[in-house]
Amino acid sequence: MNFYISGYYLIQGSRKQDWMDKDNLLPEKIWSGSRHICPKFPDSWILGWTSSKEAEAKKELEKAREIIKLSDDKFFHAQKEFNELFSENRFGFPNVFMDSNVPLEKYHQYFGSVSDLKLLGFGLPEVYLESFMTQYNLVGFESITRNGVYKKLSRRNIYDKSYQVIGYDLLGFDGADYCLFLCSSMESEIYQKYNVRFNQYGLISEYKSADKVSQAIVSGKETAEEGFWAPWLVFEIELQ
Known about the structure:
By secondary structure, the chain is of the alpha+beta class. The protein has one domain (3-237). The protein has seven helices and nine strands. It has helices at 54-68, 72-87, 101-111, 126-135, 148-155, 187-194, 207-219; strands spanning 3-12, 14-15, 29-30, 91-92, 96-97, 117-125, 164-173, 178-180, 228-237. The chain has a five-stranded antiparallel sheet with strand order 1-6-9-7-8. A two-stranded antiparallel sheet has the order 2-3.
């Protein structure tokens, strides 16, 4: 089966939180496309104009700057560069790299001090693609054409197996970014009902298992956050 690339991200691994995984099914560190679980570098704060929640945006920006450790001049230069990349459709809102060479370059330029960072690509199974495009072409999603995931999937770039697949991320896309099944504390339930196994990255090991749960969410048999749920392919590009 083909997978259509939905974007590339610099994602920081996140330690398992106290509210997660009472049955010890997950590893101590998790990588996911959900920004609710794993920080992305950069996120929308790099653009400087993306949030109406001023206090929340300011707090997020301050935290990010503490981590990336850039001087004021270098940070403002980074913001200028990323706004140019956005204008050139090489960086998508809110945090999507549109091809793999740009995050490799910007990692060394700006984000080399961030610990536990991986460059990960994500892919939507071809059987889900047309449903995704149809759903977000409907009235009420006028701003979706600015979203990086939508733009990237519109290009219909197929994952060509150049990089190592590290698992499948059960994610719900909400029109802007992804939500993870962990946000609804579903890990024990899907393990017991669907025999889901998690690997050393906190991702689901087998596509069929992830797809079963995805279909159960879509059909209403399982309850999760609102979004377009699918078993997204995850592959890693070495940060060299």
